[in-house]
């Protein structure tokens, strides 16, 4: 995998590098930023923020709710036994289990969505530098058309430029 | 569709002498293990029917009252809904059925029972030879971890119903008796079908001497206790 | 200066994974032995029958249920601290969240053992699981024990995931710093995490949703545990206050357990720079609040019972206030209210040591509270002829000791394999990372790490 990237230790400098790459004609989808913390308060940390995850969680919750409602009713009707004079399908007590199953479905769906959209587990072969774990921020481009043209964009003070083949 | 039978009982406290023949008969009929002196001292004794003894008044005007307490076979039994495995449920005959095979021994039913008439097998019951010969073949043995209680001798009810069906007749009131009713020397325990308005128990249930145990708690027990109350006697306190 | 601080943090917090002191082995050995004794005791109980425990007619629930409620209660620590503080964006939560979430997961696992331990026929415990059985019967969903099954499993799943998700970036960090089998292990556990902005955004979205979802689950779990008691018509069980009362008590005991765990970690792993007196003060204030709330609930329950003067309830009431359980009752009040109130409301005594003393008192008090809810009620039901008493047997006490040892063992092992403080969350709270609006006095106090200066050379690090 061919890539050109630089490591910075200051998030402000990294932001500068990202802007430089944009000025050099790279789109947001081309630019990779890798760090060991989220950098919520910097613009480059927000690039991929839009997600449908909350809606997926709600939808999964609704699915869990309906599934448990029907399963509870069906299993209670399959062998109707009277206990303590309660109805065969008591709504009040069933609501408790329906609630738990709704929340469980939402939670599990959220985790699955995270794994899928974050590309986890990753099979490797992607751009990464272990220096990131020492606090550096990696800003780069994978498979650039013209790596030489991008080098000046990344050559800001405090950055170490690297290439991979 | 209304059930064919609704088994109930009337216990006459004024007739009860406290002899505990009912307790012994119940043990014999239902294969209830005797837990031994040590375990009984630790509160593990299992008497499906027990005779509670209460003293009233001060010396020398002490009176003793005996009250046989057994499973009240409640219509609104609090023990049934709390069992997670449906081991306790209401049968069609109005009995509170205990299915030994489904019991995993959470003991919640025993806590929920206000009458404390449910008993637990803390150990595997043992009948050293040759005592196992006395066991009633119509009643299953319960293993460790299983809850048990009075069933109104459901094995006798089942046998009587089978006989009646075979002979194509109705059940005769008084012919079918659980072990406790059969053994009682004063006939204080009367058993029968509450759905049959002519049966003794149905008539006794309407007696002015009749009360139910812990009736205000709403479990709707089917056992009526007959006891002469002070207001029945015009010249009493 | 920034990177020095962040690297220093990572070095400090990853060091326990690569270096073990004698204490680690000693604790694991000691705790492990007690756990082994507990396992032996449980085997003995299964082999010989549940009668080896002290339960009897009519006290059919005792130590095992007390411990069940106690441990499920402690599991509410993580949720409160982690989820609520995340949702309100309280900066001081950063070093505390993982400690708390770990308590939740392990306390839940331990607590969830007890519904199996207390069964008469534990080999049939799987009947609680709703599966299409050849017996054609399903669990009775009307039973509070069935609700327990669903609630605890949902909460356990949620808590494990809530713990694991923010662990992924830290596991990746450990992967990058290790070699050999460690690298393979942590590589697998971190799922190949890189830290792209997309991954960070998705992770934070997921954490936000989980925090919102896990809160009602946590409240419902201990409410449902309280339903185990309030659904039965036992005097002083059948109270409508049990739901909120138990949840408040759970959060109360959970915070106490968290304070103790944090104090121990601070001592043994040399985390003095990360777990500051400020954090303990905040948790101490929360503990004080919960103590007052607990007293409020107890007063509510006791006043209504005493005023109502219902005979079967008053029998239990007097048994606990003046009768055979009075010693336990007044010890509980002292431990849960008097001691914490005095220590935690005075600024000078609300130190780390003070908070730890108060927390130990609270744990004792809350255990006694669960005991006093369960046993006196069962011992003194409506019919006086069938009143009874209860005394624990060695089996129950061994298993109880083993659960405390299991908690210590699991926690120690966890801190050996995973950084006990969330490194990326701590770094994200550094003043240089925050915008002006979030830069408050509090956040400056919580992470004074930017002022650490350059890292000391290799040979001189503590």
Itemize the secondary structure elements and their pairings.
The complex is a heterotrimer of chains A (165), B (237) and C (462).
Chain A: E1 3-8, H1 11-23, E2 31-34, H2 53-78, H3 91-117, E3 137-142, H4 147-154, E4 160-164
Chain B: E1 7-12, H1 21-30, H2 37-41, E2 50-56, E3 63-69, H3 78-81, E4 88-90, E5 96-98, H4 108-112, E6 119-120, E7 147-148, H5 154-166, H6 179-183, E8 189-193, H7 200-205, E9 210-211, E10 223-226
Parallel strand pairs in B: 1-10
Antiparallel strand pairs in B: 1-8, 2-3, 4-5, 6-7, 9-10
Chain C: H1 2-18, H2 22-48, H3 63-74, H4 76-87, H5 97-111, H6 114-117, H7 144-164, H8 167-177, H9 180-189, H10 197-230, H11 242-268, H12 277-308, H13 311-321, H14 326-345, H15 352-379, H16 394-417, H17 423-428, H18 441-446
Helix pairs in contact in C: 2-16, 3-5, 3-11, 3-15, 4-5, 4-10, 4-11, 5-7, 5-11, 5-16, 7-10, 8-9, 10-11, 11-12, 11-15, 12-14, 12-15, 13-14, 13-15, 14-15
Q: Which features does this protein show?
A:
heterotrimer, A: Alpha-Beta Plaits, 2 domains, four-stranded antiparallel sheet, 4 helices, C: 462 residues, mainly alpha, Formate dehydrogenase/DMSO reductase fold, 18 helices, disordered C terminus
Briefly say what this structure is:
The complex is a heterotrimer of chains A (165), B (237) and C (462). With 165 residues, chain A is an alpha+beta fold.
Largest sheet of chain C: none
Total helices of chain C: the number is: 18
User: How much is the radius of gyration of chain A in Å?
Assistant: 25 Å
Low-confidence sequence ranges of chain A: none
| SSE sequence of chain A, one letter per element | EHEHHEHE
CATH superfamily of chain C: Formate dehydrogenase/DMSO reductase domain
Biggest sheet: strand arrangement of chain A: 2-3-1-4
Please work out how many helical segments of chain A DSSP would assign.
4
Q: What is the correct CATH architecture of the largest domain in chain A?
A: 2-Layer Sandwich
- Most extensive contact: A-C, 68 and 61 residues
Oligomeric status of the shown chains?
Answer: heterotrimer
The CATH topology of the largest domain in chain A is Alpha-Beta Plaits
| Average residue-wise pLDDT of chain C | 91
C-alpha Rg of chain C (nearest Å): 23 Å
Q: Determine and state the CATH class of the largest domain in chain A.
A: Alpha Beta
Distance between the termini of chain C: 20 Å
């Amino acid at each position: 995998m061919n890539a050109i990237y630089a490591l910075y230790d200051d998030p402000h400098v990294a932001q500068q590098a990202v802007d430089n790459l944009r000025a050099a004609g790279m789109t947001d989808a081309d630019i990779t930023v890798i760090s060991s913390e989220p950098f919520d308060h910097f613009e480059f940390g927000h690039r991929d923020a839009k997600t449908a995850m909350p809606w997926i969680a709600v939808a999964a919750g609704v699915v869990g709710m309906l599934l448990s409602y029907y399963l509870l009713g069906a299993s209670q009707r399959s062998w109707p036994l009277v206990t303590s004079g309660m109805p065969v399908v008591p709504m009040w007590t069933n609501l408790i289990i329906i609630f738990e199953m709704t929340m469980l479905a939402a939670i599990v769906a959220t985790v699955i969505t995270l794994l899928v959209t974050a590309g986890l587990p990753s099979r490797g072969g992607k751009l990464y530098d272990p220096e990131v774990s020492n606090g550096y921020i990696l800003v780069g481009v994978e498979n650039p058309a013209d790596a030489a043209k991008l080098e000046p964009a990344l050559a800001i003070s405090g950055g170490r430029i690297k290439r991979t083949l | 569709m209304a059930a064919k039978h609704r088994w109930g009982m009337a216990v006459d406290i004024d007739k009860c002498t406290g002899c505990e023949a009912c307790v012994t008969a119940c043990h014999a009929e239902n294969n209830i293990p005797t837990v031994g002196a040590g375990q009984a001292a630790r509160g593990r004794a299992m008497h499906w029917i027990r005779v509670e003894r209460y003293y009233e008044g001060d010396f020398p005007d002490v009176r003793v009252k005996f009250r046989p307490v057994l499973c009240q076979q409640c219509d609104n039994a609090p023990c049934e809904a709390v069992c997670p495995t449906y081991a306790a449920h209401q049968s069609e005959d109005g009995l509170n059925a205990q299915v030994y095979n489904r019991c995993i021994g959470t003991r919640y039913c025993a806590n929920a029972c206000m009458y404390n008439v449910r008993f637990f097998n803390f150990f595997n019951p043992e009948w050293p030879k040759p005592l196992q010969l006395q066991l009633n073949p119509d009643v299953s043995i319960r293993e460790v971890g299983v809850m048990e209680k009075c069933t109104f001798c459901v094995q006798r009810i089942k046998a009587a119903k089978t006989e009646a069906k075979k002979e194509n007749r109705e059940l005769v009131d008084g012919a079918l008796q659980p072990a406790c009713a059969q053994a009682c020397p004063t006939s204080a325990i009367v058993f029968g079908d509450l759905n049959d308005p002519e049966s003794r128990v149905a008539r006794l249930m309407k007696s002015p001497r009749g009360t139910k145990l812990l009736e205000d708690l709403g479990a709707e027990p089917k056992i009526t206790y007959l006891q002469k109350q002070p207001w029945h006697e015009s010249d009493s306190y | 200066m920034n990177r020095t601080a962040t690297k220093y943090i990572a070095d400090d917090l990853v060091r326990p994974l690569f270096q073990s002191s004698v204490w680690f082995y000693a604790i694991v050995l000691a705790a492990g032995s007690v756990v082994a004794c507990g396992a032996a005791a449980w085997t003995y109980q299964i082999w010989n029958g549940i009668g080896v425990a002290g339960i009897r007619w009519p006290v059919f629930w005792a130590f095992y249920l007390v411990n069940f409620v106690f441990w499920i209660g402690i599991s509410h620590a993580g949720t409160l601290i982690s989820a609520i503080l995340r949702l309100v964006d309280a900066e001081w939560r950063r070093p505390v969240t993982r400690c708390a979430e770990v308590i939740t997961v392990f306390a839940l696992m331990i607590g969830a053992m007890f519904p199996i331990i207390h069964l008469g026929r534990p080999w049939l415990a799987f009947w609680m699981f709703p599966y299409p059985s050849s017996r054609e019967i399903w669990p009775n969903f009307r039973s509070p024990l069935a609700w327990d099954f669903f609630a605890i499993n949902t909460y356990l799943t949620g808590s494990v995931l809530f713990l694991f998700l923010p662990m992924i970036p830290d596991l990746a960090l450990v992967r990058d710093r290790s070699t050999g089998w460690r690298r393979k292990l942590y590589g697998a556990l971190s799922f190949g995490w890189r830290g792209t902005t997309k991954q960070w955004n998705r992770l934070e979205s997921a954490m936000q949703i989980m925090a919102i979802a896990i809160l009602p689950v946590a409240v419902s779990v201990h409410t449902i545990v309280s339903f185990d008691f309030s659904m039965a018509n036992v005097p002083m069980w059948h109270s409508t206050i049990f739901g909120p009362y138990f949840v408040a008590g759970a959060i109360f005991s959970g915070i106490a357990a968290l304070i103790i765990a944090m104090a121990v970690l601070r001592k043994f792993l040399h985390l003095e720079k990360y777990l500051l007196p400020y954090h303990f003060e905040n948790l101490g204030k929360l503990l004080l609040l919960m103590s007052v709330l607990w007293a409020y609930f107890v007063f509510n329950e006791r006043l209504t019972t005493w005023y109502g003067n219902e005979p079967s309830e008053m029998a239990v009431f007097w048994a606990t206030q003046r009768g055979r359980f009075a010693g336990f009752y007044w010890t509980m009040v002292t431990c849960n209210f008097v001691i914490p109130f005095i220590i935690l409301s005075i600024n000078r005594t609300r130190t780390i040591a003070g908070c730890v003393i108060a927390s130990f008192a609270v744990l004792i008090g809350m255990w006694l509270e669960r005991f006093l809810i369960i046993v006196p009620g069962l011992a003194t039901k409506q019919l006086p002829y069938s009143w009874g008493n209860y005394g624990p047997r060695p089996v129950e006490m061994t298993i109880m000791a083993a659960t405390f040892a299991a908690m210590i063992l699991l926690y120690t092992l966890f801190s050996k394999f995973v950084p006990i403080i969330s490194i990326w969350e701590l770094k994200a709270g550094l003043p240089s990372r925050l915008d002006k609006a979030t830069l408050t006095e509090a956040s400056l106090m919580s992470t004074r790490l930017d002022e650490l200066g350059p890292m000391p050379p290799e040979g001189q690090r503590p």
